[in-house]
Design brief:
This protein has 296 residues and is an alpha/beta fold. It has a single domain, classed as Metallo-dependent phosphatases (Purple Acid Phosphatase, chain A, domain 2), CATH 3.60.21. Helices cover 20% and strands 25% of the residues. The strands form 3 sheets. The chain has a 6-stranded mixed beta sheet with strand order 3-2-1-10-11-12. Strands 4-5-6-7-9-8 form a 6-stranded mixed beta sheet, with helices on one face. Strands 13-14 form a two-stranded antiparallel sheet. Helix 2 runs parallel beside helix 3 and helix 4 runs parallel beside helix 5. The longest helix is centred in the first third of the chain and has 14 residues. It starts with a strand and ends in a 5-residue tail after the last strand. The relative contact order is 0.15. Bound molecules: fe (ii) ion (FE2) (2 copies). One fe (ii) ion binds next to loops.
Length: 296
Amino acid sequence: MTTVRILHLSDVHFGVDAQLDQLEQIELFAPKLEPDAVVLSGDLTQRARHGEFQAAHALMRRMSQIAPTLTVPGNHDVQWWASPFGIRGTRPLFRKYRQWFGDELTPTLEVEGAVIAGALSAHGVSRGSLTWNLRDIAVKGHLPVSETDRLKAIFDRAKPGAARVVVMHHNVLPGAISRRMGLADPEDAQRRLSATGADLVLCGHDHQEGAEQLDGRLTISTSSTQSSRTRGRRASVFNMVEIDADSIQVQHFSWDRPTCRFNPADTASFPRHLPEPVVSVAGGDDPDARVTPPED
Ligand SMILES: [Fe+2]
Ligand SMILES: [Fe+2]
């Protein structure tokens, strides 16, 4: 299988908190990392303003000169006040996002060796994202069943051996410092994400990087932020993810303020488990008449 390299940014938060010196360094550094794709997992803006979207769009256009790009909206990119609880439908929530990034909120990007599918977890003030904590209103997200069903259908059609990658905004695992989940019903979402056949989920929102494997199979990689709003005032981090036939490696790059550059920091490596190939023999659909080919 081809090795696939994905540059993963999140939470650039254009507006007063964006760290332009860091973003300039990433643009300079990115070609040397030779990514096959660049993803930005939401919170492009701070207040969903046109000027902020314009800056984010310009960044992604420049990154697309390096590799194909994919973006999904985060909770800060949703005009939640325009249609709380969907009283005016969902269209007003994403009016500005769509104006700059196109109608498709959940794009799919195919590169050699991988299918990268966006998923929508930012729904503004909606019933599925509500918790008993008032602080969570318009902050927490949720992953509807229709989204995981759609992802499964995409991954079922993917070529055997291709890496199946989900890009969504809200963190699927709790942050190491915040201990907060990004999703309102995280266990259910984790279970359904695992059932899609995905190898990897790329997410953000917590403003602290992380990488773990769920149930020994689904790798979850969280990117930090290129804004001043890092968790615990830690250094900003972006992630470089490399997927091959046997493993998924997440390399964090950490901002070094004195030298104004990103340096390699922690790396996490996880086994990748490809589904067992199954060959049908005489007997058609009879599952007892199937054999698994011997390993060579
Ligand atoms: Fe954010
Ligand atoms: Fe967020």
